[in-house]
Amino acid sequence: xxxxxxxxxxxxxxxxxxxxxxxxxxxxxxxxxxxxxxxxxxxxxxxxxxxxxxxxxxxxxxxxxxxxxxxxxxxxxxxxxxxxxxxxxxxxxxxxxxxxxxxxxxxxxxxxxxxxxxxxxxxxxxxxxxxxxxxxxxxxxxxxxxxxxxxxxxxxxxxxxxxxxxxxxxxxxxxxxxxxxxxxxxxxxxxxxxxxxxxxxxxxxxxxxxxxxxxxxxxxxxxxxxxxxxxxxxxxxxxxxxxxxxxxxxxxxxxxxxxxxxxxxxxxxxxxxxxxxxxxxxxxxxxxxxxxxxxxxxxxxxxxxxxxxxxxxxxxxxxxxxxxxxxxxxxxxxxxxxxxxxxxxxxxx
Length: 349
Prior knowledge:
349 residues, alpha+beta, conserved putative lor/sdh protein from methanococcus maripaludis s2 fold, Elongation Factor Tu (Ef-tu), domain 3, CATH 2.40.50.100, six-stranded antiparallel beta barrel, four-stranded antiparallel β-sheet, 21 strands, 24% helix
């Protein structure tokens, strides 16, 4: 009797245990993994700009190197770089006793020759024709004296080195008191209001560029500010050693922009209107096919794509499989490299 009671208790216990296990198993089956955090951006219909990417450097469209043309001592020089100068203003002056002495001597000789010439003209008997005047200029030495005076004036004027345009002093190589010689570099002037970008493009990219194209120029030194420039010129030749040619891009006046700064440039070579575009960073390659993950009801659904032109961080969608990608759908842009189809996700932009 006791054995029957114990057996009954065991059967009831096993039945309860079995029921509890089934409930736990059912509960475990219904639990879903925590959603993975991702970022996403909506597919949109917009204009796509196909570009050629490169890096370049800001330069001034006008630069003047100031060099000594005579030997002498520097008696005038700018105090500091960045000083503004005006067109025709004297930037450096060189004192040369030899030039001053030669000018004084040439001026004296010219005055003497002119006095003799005028005396001969007044006392000449006959018609004072242009031919006779020319002959008297030669015989009195006035012609030679005038030539010598012009040369002395030129040499003396070379002691003053002037600016050829409104600009700023970008470099000072000579200071007051220095003795310089013909050809010695004294300094440099740049035009800070006429800046441009110079880039070298390989021959394949160069042929896609032409004057007037729009250019997006990003400047790291100005907190990655992006400005719009215009292609001013494209080199007609390719440097054989570099297999590249130069492109010059005109820029608008931007406060704080300085010559020498580095830039990232995107030269627009084609424009496609009304394109369904998605961020390039959303595209993955699986089984040699381009694909993206789309957020659908909190899950990542993959879509295989046929892509078109790309530029400025976006790519056009030409065709797509598995129901396609439509305007407004959220495509995952980060956190998607290890995702599986139908994995739960949470957008955390």
